[in-house]
Amino acid sequence: MALVNTHLPELTLISKGKVRDIYSVSSPDHLLFVATDRISAYDVILKNGIPDKGKLLTQISLFWFKKLGSIIPNHFVTANIDEMPEEVKKYEDQLKDRTMLVRKAKVVQIEAIVRGYLTGSAWSEYKKSGTVHGISLPPNMVESQKLPEPLFTPSTKAEQGAHDENISPEQAAKLLGQELYNQISQASLKLYSEAALYAHSKGLILADTKFEFGLIPSSSKPGEETLILVDEVLTPDSSRYWPLEGYEPGKSQPSFDKQYLRDWLVSAGFRKGLENGKEGEEGKGWLIDEDVVQGTRKRYEEAVKLLMG
Hints:
It contains ten helices and 16 strands. By secondary structure, it is α+β, with helices and mostly antiparallel strands.
């Protein structure tokens, strides 16, 4: 059975996102991140979840936090319930394998997206203008083609239910300040390149991904802040993974992410509500068919097996 809502009455829920419930704990410098089995598409949370999805996402994030820790520090502290504050331990039946104790950070208000292939909204923009986030690309590129080099293409962080807005690197630099922008763009590109190389060795193409960053007080320089990686990292919710076998530019690719669910929603007529500006009304109570639930779960499980097997 899918866990779509957590119930931890002795803890204070401070944020409920599309997937994660975030709680405060007795340790003032930490937060509890719980990955539920909720699933969203087109910025709408669907009524039923995908069983064990939160556990699979947590497993993948932990793997990547460890693997990429030498590039940039991250917010992960522990996933072991026994090492968490006392008030957390009584909820082990809900939290086991889907929960991280993390360092509290001031979240940077952009989505740090890196694209290695021409797909999704990048492909849509390129067809219209020959650009991606305002960056000019060579002519005559085709859908799913590998980009000459990975691109850092930020977006705004919208409120839940609203859509993130693509912005140019110049706009992001103005929003963040040049120094912080440089730190984030360089770290994002390095993280993507390292992860894409590893994924390729496992028979996967990492087409694009989204990182989030935060700032914590510097331990070595009083009054200054240190940039860290936060939230989830390189999961099928935040990334597009394609099978390397059968990859063929010029068309859309099969994927180990939510695209299968998105395609079903479009075919079921769900997308029409979004185009008419009724996403809240149309999305409320929308049930995913059981075969689509199982098909989506299978794709998440396969991604874990390929990456970590």
